[in-house]
UniProtKB/TrEMBL annotation:
The keyword Signal applies. GO terms for cellular component: membrane. Pfam families: SRCR. Residues 6-105 form the SRCR domain. Disulfide bonds join 74-84. It comes from Magallana gigas (Pacific oyster). Keywords: Disulfide bond, Glycoprotein, Repeat, Signal. This is SRCR domain-containing protein.
Length: 106
């Protein structure tokens, strides 16, 4: 597996924004299909936050790179977003208007 990391971009404050994934040295996004609080909890925990205040889609500025993950599903116990299930990297039927966003508790 190629190295992947996750972060938040385009949020107005620390701990919020569009979920962005760096995979194979290219920044891309996560589709909000199937996106829920469990998924957002895992992302927030990975970034050092205690939890979420909101999980949504298209609340902030949309991403522009590839949509790396679709049908992203976590059970809230995963220690890394790569342990959650999703279509293969880059396999999606999504548009950037449905990019996943999160607001973590800071």
């Amino acid at each position: 597996m190629k190295y992947a990391s996750i972060g938040l971009v385009a949020g107005g404050h620390s701990g919020e924004g569009c979920v962005e994934v760096l995979y194979n040295n290219t920044l891309g996004t996560v589709c909000s299909d199937q996106w829920d609080d469990n998924d957002a909890q895992v992302v927030c925990r990975m970034l050092g936050y205690s939890g979420i205040s909101m999980a949504a889609n298209a609340y902030f500025e949309m991403g522009s790179g590839p949509i790396w993950m679709d049908n992203f599903q976590c059970e809230d116990h995963e220690t890394s977003f790569t342990k959650c299930s999703f279509n293969a990297y880059g396999v999606n039927n999504c548009v950037h208007e449905k990019d996943a966003v999160v607001m973590c508790n800071v």
